[in-house]
Design a protein that fits this description.
The chain is an alpha/beta fold. Helix content is 43%, strand content 15%. The protein is built from 10 helices and 7 strands. It is globular and about 55 Å long. The structure holds magnesium ion (MG) and zinc ion.
Length: 227
């Protein structure tokens, strides 16, 4: 009997703190932002006076630097996590699709992925226009507010990219990954996302690098195939 072919997977991956070792937004704010802006925004955010998006707009308005300066800092401070390029090559050879869903900025993501040699990956993200007079954010279209989390979340990106019946592997580390992770067939999580899923009693696999992810997907493939 012939072996059944491997079911093609959609491997959807967060960018900041997941593909990269450090969150590029943190790097940018640290080097080019104004100290104290976040301290003023945080109580208003917690009190519900402003949204996360409004807080980001205000915080990045105080970020002063050219695109060249910003990208140089990101390249220095935010390298790609070990094994990512190998995972992409392996996934493609096996017929799986890899996509990037990010709440960060396209210009930054494209530069980092291109440097790594995987600049052709599909990316869904916001965008930032950097300048010495302050940075302006351009929001991605994330459709209507998600009924589950009350935000415009990555479930919208997934709905756009997922093919009927395609099993989803999701990889992430942060708050913007929480809602979409709940619809994935297999979740790899680190940092805050791992803590959140553990507290919620939801299953996930921890990872330190993408070699762990590759091994985890390999081990889970028979189950994903049967689903
Ligand atoms: Mg992240
Ligand atoms: Zn949601």
């Amino acid at each position: 009997m012939l072996a059944r072919p491997v079911t093609p997977l959609l491997i959807a991956c967060d960018f900041d703190g997941t593909i990269t070792c450090r969150d590029t937004l943190h790097v940018i704010i640290e080097e080019f932002g104004v100290t104290g802006v976040w301290d003023r925004l945080e109580p208003r955010l917690r009190a519900g006076e402003i949204t996360v998006e409004q807080a980001m707009v205000e915080q990045f308005a105080a970020v002063r630097g050219t695109t060249e300066e910003i990208l140089a800092a990101v390249r220095r401070e935010s390298p790609v996590r070990e094994g990512f390029v190998e995972l992409v090559a392996w996934a493609r050879a096996a017929g799986h699709r890899v996509v990037v869903f990010s709440s960060g900025f396209r210009t930054v993501i494209d530069a980092v992925l291109k440097d790594a040699g995987v600049g052709d990956l599909p990316v869904h993200s916001h965008e930032a226009r950097f300048s010495e007079d302050g940075c302006r954010l351009v929001w991605a279209d994330r459709g209507e507010v998600c009924p589950l989390c009350g935000r415009r979340c990555k479930r919208h990106d997934l709905a756009l990219h997922r093919r009927p019946g395609e099993p989803v592997v999701y990889l992430g580390d942060g708050i913007s990954d929480r809602c979409v992770a709940r619809v994935a067939d297999l979740v790899f999580a680190r940092a805050g996302l791992a803590e959140h899923l553990a507290e919620s009693g939801l299953e996930f696999l921890p990872f330190d690098d993408f070699h762990d992810v590759r091994r985890g997907i390999d081990a889970a493939l028979p189950a994903l195939r049967a689903a």
